[in-house]
Amino acid sequence: MKVTLFGVRGSMPAPLRNKEYRDKMVETLSLFAQSKHAATQDVAGFWKTLPPRLRHTAGGDTTCVGVQSNSDTNYVIDFGTGARTLGDSMVSKILAYKGEYILNIFITHTHWDHIQALPFFKPMYFPNVTLRFHSPYPDLDARLSRQMEKEFFPITFHATSSKKEFILFEPGDVLKFEDDRVQVEVHPLKHPGNSYAYKFTEDKKVFIFATDAEFTGEDLEYIRGIAPFFGMADLLVLDSQYTLDESFAKFDWGHTAYTMAVNIAHNWKVRNLALTHHEPAYNDEKVYGIWEDAVEHRNALGASKLKIHLAREGMTFTL
């Protein structure tokens, strides 16, 4: 199973601004001029020495995840602005496909940053594509249609060429795909207006996506109680939008502090934790600083077996 993060920003898109780009370039060029690589013009070698905040950008697109099974079947989680890139990457495969192309889609919730790229998702415009939506929302069809009414978009949702199917998928259900080799489960999360985590299992490997979730120090009993669903995941991509101080100021806003994300991943004996849903006001320096602090917090807990990753646009995990 391959998990690719096409959008990792929370709340609203946050593209790299010119000043941020300039600051990164100035610092990078300054470091190059001082390095041993300058004399040999070994730019590629120098690039490998840069700190992650300069070597990468976290990305500005909002939430979208692509899951590819071992037999090359694609699944989609959410339609934040990252879904435009995901859709573009699927076009050649759809064009080459003979017959009905079924794409299974899972929606965590319908806040704007999780559905706003649906009108720009190219597979929706192919007549041989069936978009099969799975979610706990009985009115999902109406919700998605509403954002594409003519006041907001030139083409309505059901005027696009693809077929649409809506399947109610509730906690306790287990969906089975590809002759039962891929299984998907769902679990409710604490978030205003509701949100749901999705758990993918293939060949005993487990990936869980749990964005837009608020966990606090008051939830310890609840966290232990839901360990059977989340425990021992090979990869948990978890909401960690806030610093600890910010989480106190934004109580009940529906997001988690990175310290708490590390605490619960350790409690659930997760193998890999990816911090996601980055605050749109944070630049790369701030976001990567949170990741460094999260690693330091993990070390203080003595949770050396837990690997912590900063969710980055385009990042792929192979399980």
How many domains? 2
- Silhouette: globular
Tell how many strands the DSSP assignment holds.
14
Q: Strands of the largest sheet, in order across it?
A: 6-5-4-3-2-1-14
Estimate the helix proportion, in percent: 25-40%
CATH class term of the largest domain: Alpha Beta
Description:
- This protein is an alpha/beta fold and 319 residues long.
- It folds into two domains: 2-13 and 59-318, Metallo-beta-lactamase, Chain A (4-Layer Sandwich); 18-55, no CATH class.
- The chain has helices at 18-34, 37-40, 43-49, 52-55, 83-96, 140-146, 220-225, 227-230, 244-249, 258-267, 284-301; strands spanning 2-7, 64-68, 74-77, 101-106, 129-135, 163-168, 175-177, 182-189, 195-202, 205-210, 235-239, 272-276, 307-310, 316-318.
- Helix 10 runs parallel beside helix 11 (284-301).
- The longest helix has 18 residues, at 284-301.
- The N and C termini lie close together (5 Å).
- The model has no long low-confidence stretch (mean pLDDT 95).
Strand and helix map with partners:
Layout: E1 2-7, H1 18-34, H2 37-40, H3 43-49, H4 52-55, E2 64-68, E3 74-77, H5 83-96, E4 101-106, E5 129-135, H6 140-146, E6 163-168, E7 175-177, E8 182-189, E9 195-202, E10 205-210, H7 220-225, H8 227-230, E11 235-239, H9 244-249, H10 258-267, E12 272-276, H11 284-301, E13 307-310, E14 316-318
Parallel strand pairs: 3-4, 4-5, 5-6, 10-11, 11-12, 12-13
Antiparallel strand pairs: 1-2, 1-14, 2-3, 7-8, 8-9, 9-10
Helix pairs in contact: 10-11
